[in-house]
Design goal:
Elements: H1 23-34, H2 44-96, H3 101-119, H4 123-150, E1 161-168, E2 179-185, E3 190-195, E4 206-210, E5 216-220, E6 228-234, E7 237-242, E8 247-252, E9 259-263, E10 276-281, E11 287-291, E12 296-300, E13 308-309, E14 318-323, E15 328-332, E16 338-341, E17 347-351, E18 366-368, E19 374-378, E20 383-387, E21 393-398, H5 402-407, E22 413-418, E23 423-428, E24 433-439
Antiparallel strand pairs: 1-24, 2-3, 3-4, 4-5, 6-7, 7-8, 8-9, 10-11, 11-12, 12-13, 14-15, 15-16, 16-17, 18-19, 19-20, 20-21, 22-23, 23-24
Helix pairs in contact: 2-3, 2-4
NHL repeats: 263-303
InterPro entries: 6-blade_b-propeller_TolB-like (IPR011042), NHL_repeat (IPR001258), TRIM-NHL_E3_ligases (IPR050952)
Pfam families: NHL (PF01436)
C-alpha cells in the first residue's frame, strides 16, 4: 500500500469507526487512501517567449553587423581623403617653387579627380543599407508588439481579486463532484476539470468542461475510466490519468470526445503504472507522466507508445510536473519539494521546502507563470503561495473565506492553472464552491 501523505489530524469522537481503531488512526488511514491531489499547467507562454527572443536576437545581430559595416566604410573613406589632402598640399608647395610645374599640375589634376570620387555620394551602397536598416527596424518593432501582446510580464498577485465564484458541489451536469485537476485548452480558452470519485446515486466519474467565465458547456466519460485524476491538453488531444485502473487515456477533442488510445496496468515494468498522478505534454507531443508509487517519470509519445524513463535515478513520490522550453519541474514528496531537471534527465537544482513549519505544509500541485514564478497551493491550509524562480516566497494568498477555513480544516485547494489573461483558476475539494476564478492583473 502506498502512503499518500505524511500529515495527519485527529477527528472528534463522532467520526470513530472500524471497530476498535481510534479516531486518530482512522483519519490517518483515510488521508492515506483518499486525498492525493494533483494539478497541471500548460507551458505555451514560456515557449513563445523563448522562440521570439531567439528571433529578436538574430535580427539585432544582423542590424549591428550592417551598422558596423557602414561605419567601417566611412572610416576608410575619411582616411583616404586625408591622405589625398596631404599629397595635394605637398604638391601645391612644390608648385610654388616651380619644380617640374607641368608634371605637378597633372598630378594635382589627378588628385582633384580622386578627391571628387572619394567625396562623391555612393547611392547604391547608401540605398541598400538604408533599405536593410529600415526593414530590420520594422521587424524589431513588430516583434516588440508581439512580445507586448502575447507575453504579459507583470503578475500582480498582491492585487489578486476574485472575479468569478461558480460551479457548486453536486452530481448534476454543471456541478462538480470531488474535482481533482484543472487544465486550459488555450485554443478555445475552455476549462477542463477531472472529477475523481463517482457518486453512488450520480453519474460516472467524468471530465467537465466550462467557459473561461465558469459557464458549463459539456462533459464526457468512458466505461473504462473509474477515477480520473491528472489532465493535459496538446493540440486536439486530451490526456487523462486514472489512479484506480493505473492507466493513461487519450481522448480526441471532437463532438463526442472519442477514446483513441489507452495504456497501462498496475505494475512496475515500463508501460505499467502504480498510481499515476498528473502529466504534462512537451511541444513535440511527448507525454510526461508522474508514476507516483513507482518513484519515476515515464515519457510516452503522443499516441501513448515508445515509452522511456526521464531519469533512472528515483524521484520520491512525484505528484505534479510542468515543462518549460529548457527545463522540467517536478513536485515530489521530498525536501526541497520542487526538483528541476534538464530534458535529458540531469538534476539541476531544488526549490521550496515542504513540512508543517516550512515553506508549504502539504502541496499536491503547482503551476509556473511566464516569469518562472512558482505558484503552489498549500492544500492543508487553503492558501496559494508564490515563489520566485530562486525559490524565495514573494506572496501568500488566502483563498478561502474565514468561515470556510474554520469549517474545512483539511484545506480548500485542489487543481490550479493560469489562463492566457493571467486569471488563476482553482478547483476545490472542501468547499461549497468547487471552481473559482481570480484575476492576477
Amino acid at each position: 500500500m502506498c502512503h499518500k501523505s505524511r500529515h495527519f489530524y485527529p477527528l472528534n469522537s463522532t467520526q470513530l469507526c472500524l471497530g476498535g481503531m481510534n479516531a486518530y488512526l482512522y483519519l490517518k488511514w483515510c488521508l492515506c487512501l483518499y486525498y492525493p491531489i494533483e494539478t497541471k499547467i500548460n507551458d505555451l507562454v514560456d515557449r513563445i517567449v523563448y522562440r521570439l527572443n531567439q528571433r529578436r536576437a538574430a535580427l539585432l545581430n544582423r542590424y549591428h553587423e550592417l551598422r558596423d559595416e557602414k561605419a567601417a566604410r566611412r572610416s576608410a573613406r575619411i582616411k583616404k581623403f586625408e591622405e589625398l589632402v596631404g599629397i595635394k598640399a605637398d604638391t601645391e608647395r612644390r608648385l610654388q617653387i616651380n619644380e617640374l610645374q607641368e608634371l605637378q599640375e597633372r598630378i594635382l589634376a589627378d588628385i582633384e579627380l580622386k578627391l571628387a570620387e572619394v567625396n562623391a555620394h555612393q547611392p547604391e551602397t547608401h540605398i541598400v543599407f538604408r533599405n536593410q536598416s529600415e526593414h530590420l527596424e520594422q521587424l524589431i518593432a513588430e516583434l516588440g508588439e508581439v512580445l507586448e501582446e502575447e507575453v504579459p510580464i507583470i503578475h500582480n498577485y498582491q492585487a489578486m481579486r476574485e472575479v468569478v465564484a461558480v460551479v457548486k458541489r453536486g452530481t448534476a451536469h454543471g456541478e462538480l463532484n470531488d474535482p481533482r485537476a484543472v487544465v486550459i485548452d488555450y485554443n478555445t480558452n475552455r476549462i477542463f476539470v477531472t472529477e475523481g470519485v463517482p457518486s453512488l446515486s450520480g453519474p460516472q466519474a467524468r471530465i467537465s468542461i466550462f467557459t473561461d467565465g465558469g459557464d458549463y458547456l459539456d462533459s464526457f466519460n468512458h466505461m473504462d475510466m473509474h477515477h480520473p485524476y491528472g489532465i493535459a491538453i496538446h493540440v486536439d488531444n486530451v490526456y487523462v490519468t486514472d489512479t484506480r485502473v493505473h492507466a493513461v487515456f487519450l481522448f480526441k477533442i471532437e463532438t463526442s470526445y472519442p477514446l483513441i488510445a489507452e495504456l497501462g496496468t498496475r505494475g512496475s515494468q515500463i508501460g505499467q503504472f502504480n498510481d499515476p498522478h498528473n502529466l504534462a505534454v512537451s511541444t513535440n507531443g511527448d507525454v510526461y507522466v508522474t508514476d507516483y508509487c513507482n518513484h519515476r517519470i515515464q515519457i510516452l509519445n503522443s499516441s501513448l507508445q515508445s515509452i522511456r524513463n526521464l531519469t533512472e535515478q528515483p524521484i520520491k513520490y512525484p505528484r505534479d510536473i510542468k515543462l518549460t522550453a529548457d527545463e522540467v519541474y517536478v513536485l515530489c514528496v521530498d525536501n526541497p519539494c520542487i526538483l528541476v531537471l534538464s530534458h535529458a534527465g540531469e538534476r539541476l537544482r531544488s526549490l521550496v521546502s515542504m513540512g508543517r513549519q516550512r515553506d508549504v505544509c502539504d502541496s499536491h500541485f503547482f503551476c509556473i507563470d511566464s516569469a518562472k514564478n512558482i505558484i503552489i497551493s498549500d492544500y492543508m491550509f487553503g492558501k496559494v503561495k508564490i515563489f520566485n524562480k530562486e525559490g524565495t516566497l514573494i506572496h501568500t494568498i488566502e483563498i478561502g473565506r474565514q468561515d470556510e477555513r474554520l469549517t474545512y480544516p483539511l484545506g480548500l485547494g485542489q487543481g490550479l492553472v493560469l489562463t492566457k489573461d493571467l486569471n488563476l483558476v482553482l478547483v476545490y475539494l472542501h468547499s461549497d464552491y468547487c471552481l473559482r476564478i481570480f484575476s492576477c492583473l
